[in-house]
Amino acid sequence: MGTNDSSAQTGASTLQKILTVVVLLIAIGAVVYVKRMNKESGSAVVPAPEASNSRANATPPASPDIAPLSKDVPPTKSGLPRLVDVGAGQCIPCKLMAPILEDLRRECADKLEVEFIDVWKDPDAGEGYGVQTIPTQIFYDATGQERFRHQGFLGKEDILAKWEELGVDVGGSAQATPAFSRWEPAQPDTRPKDQVCYLCDGDINAKTRTILNTPGGDVLFCSTHCYLITHASLTDPEKSHEKASTTDWATGALHPVTASTYLYGMDSQGRPTVRAFADSAAATAEQQNFGGNILNWRAFERKELSTRCAFCDRPVYPEDASVVHVDGGIQTWACCVMCGLGVVARTGSDIDLEAKDALTGEALRVVTYEGHVAVLEPSTMVAWAGATKDAAGKISSTGCFKQAFFATDEHLRQWVEQHPTATGQRVTIRQALEAKLKLTPEQISKACKIGECTPKQ
Ligand SMILES: [Zn+2]
Ligand SMILES: [Zn+2]
């Protein structure tokens, strides 16, 4: 310590660290800059090439989706519809689009020509397309006529859906998969009503049964956890605790939740186990055998309410929840996969969502960019939107416990077979995200009270 050698080393490594930090800051700065640009214009501005852009500059597009018609562009050589993505190898949204273009080349090989033009490397190649910002995607039909253009990032399913809307068959997985739904249960739920949890539809365990007394009668829950989720969903939750009772683990009798003592433990999955007692001495006795911590109502309630869904604000156990990284950084939770997509709508930020296949438990990932699906891992991922349909055809969500993602359509079908009372429909991840993005700020702010997460009436 303190020798010249080591201080020289320290100096060198400090310099290295500073350089690393500087390089990182430059990289972050570049990303932030590009993202700002994107937030404003939907994409980065192309450095104007001299001659070709004069006409484009004179007649700016009226909206991001309508641009000057590009003339002088040769029709497709192959006689196929053609997608041209004008971008640059180093622009962030362009980089995100590269694997999408690759997928489209492979999946639509015989039906679509896919071309990428790097205008930073080769400004001449972009001439004639009338592009003002990158990336821009231009859709040409088989006759070479431009049918649509879009500025900014565009996901694979968005692209395939646009071709479909234009009436141009380019194949591709999203178009090839038929709709799948079930609106009548394959088997009715024959369980007695007093043995079914109001919130999660799970069986009620006699040792943890919890009851909320309402003007319309008693509402039954499988546990204090399901009661507290419902409490958080009430428009006026203030008085609800006074009307809630839970089962004394020792005697089986009901006891007010606020006057109970809770033995709070953990199972092998890290999921809380909760035993309630009317008598704190009984809780201590149980603790001798079972372990765990003894909490009064206030401490128990705070613990239960500490982790919330970033979309609907319901309390969740992290072990049950999907992990959501917002804007590539802050980690939060979603009580179900659909709520995970809802975080895009609620925060206006992009997300990286970690979910699980509801059939196999395998890891799934959804990344959004500018509100579009950018990455699906695996790319065959689909969603089951648990819902009911009334006589008028109006579709209503059956709530967070009935939503699921799957790695493949085959997994979804197997899961639906295994859940004969499930009703709803298969949707693509893009459709699920779009449904969330259609919600008004008012609907989003009340997400746990109305719509998606409304407890059944
Ligand atoms: Zn329940
Ligand atoms: Zn939620």
Question: What would you say this structure looks like, in words?
Answer:
It is a single chain. This protein has 457 residues and is α+β, with helices and mostly antiparallel strands. It folds into three domains: 45-176, 3-Layer(aba) Sandwich (Glutaredoxin), CATH 3.40.30.10; 207-304, no CATH class; 309-453, Beta-Lactamase (2-Layer Sandwich). The protein has helices at 4-41, 54-58, 92-107, 156-165, 173-176, 224-233, 280-290, 297-304, 337-347, 409-418, 429-437, 441-445, and strands spanning 44-45, 82-87, 113-118, 133-134, 136-140, 146-151, 181-182, 210-214, 217-221, 244-247, 254-256, 261-266, 272-277, 293-295, 322-326, 331-334, 351-356, 363-369, 372-377, 382-389, 395-397, 404-406, 424-427. Strands 7, 20, 21, 22 and 23 form a five-stranded antiparallel beta sheet that branches. It has a five-stranded antiparallel beta sheet with strand order 16-15-17-18-19. It is elongated, with a radius of gyration of 28 Å. The relative contact order is 0.08. Residues 1-43, 47-71 and 450-457 have low confidence and may be disordered. The protein binds zinc ion (ZN) (2 copies). One zinc ion is lined by residues 197, 199-200, 202, 221-223, 226.
Task: Tell me what portion of residues adopts beta-strand conformation.
Answer: 15-25%
Instruction: Note the main sheet.
Output: 5 strands, antiparallel
Any idea how many domains?
Answer: 3
**For the residues shown, what is the average pLDDT?**
82
| Low-pLDDT residue spans | 1-43, 47-71, 450-457
Structure summary, number of beta strands: 23
User: Can you give the helix content as a percent range?
Assistant: 25-40%
Bound molecules: zinc ion
